[in-house]
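call fold(seq) -> C-alpha cells
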Amino acid sequence: MSGMAVSSELFDGRYLQARKNREKSLWGVVQVAFETKAGDLVELTAKNPLTTSLGQNTPLARFKGNLIVLGLSFLDGAAMTIDADDNKVQFDIA
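ret:
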C-alpha cells in the first residue's frame, strides 16, 4: 500500500464533508503526529495520498473507532526501522 486506508466511518464522513464543501480532493495534505516515549513529536506527511476504505472484509472490521493505516507515501524522504524484539519503531526524517 502506498497511500492510506481508513475505517469506513471515517472515509464516509470525510467524503460527505468534501462533497458538501465542493472540495476537489478528499485528502489534501495529511499530517500524522506521534508522541515518542521521551515526549518529542514525530510527524509524517503525505500530499494527496491514495486513500481507500478498509471495508467490511478486513480482519479489523470489529475495531471500534477510527483506524488509519499509513502506507509508503508517508515515508517519502524518510526511513523507518522496526525493532520487534524491543517493540520500538524509529523514523529517520531527512
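The longest helix spans residues 8-20.
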